[in-house]
Amino acid sequence: MRDRILLVGPMGAGKTTIGTLVSAELGWKYIDNDAEMAEISGLSEAELSQLSVPELHGLEESYLMNIASRPGPFIAGAAASVVENIENLKVMQELSTIYLYIPLELQLERAGGVGIGRQALQENPEEVIRERFIRRDPRYRQAAALTLELSDSPEADAAKLVSFIRS
Hints:
By secondary structure, this protein is α/β, with parallel strands linked by helices. The chain is built from eight helices and five strands; from the N terminus they run E-H-E-H-H-H-E-H-E-H-H-E-H.
């Protein structure tokens, strides 16, 4: 059984929703990216949402390294930006990384404009999301043990993921 699961994907993919459902089904801890980064950095989530993009991405990479050093079992969400650094792909491949894929059109609907990781969406959010999708999608796929094409049902998606973990 895979016991260190890292969920990746764009903002709005449902990492927290699906991760919480899967962790409840398996009885494992769910590690939320934003809450954990706040704890590691000593900053509040509100303060994290005010950091510059490079500062935030640095913390997100530190979080990834921290998660990779922990024993399982756990389900953890990771920031979309971790695939920006090609060296992180190896770390992600050492975990059971699951890419939660949603089409670009759905990303544009779900991303929102407020919160941690949305600093770059203040101006031209549609352009930023499109550019990130084009650049990041191939890297997510490279790092992932599974690409899960999401449906309209988080419960059904979580069930698919539980089946994969148990296989």
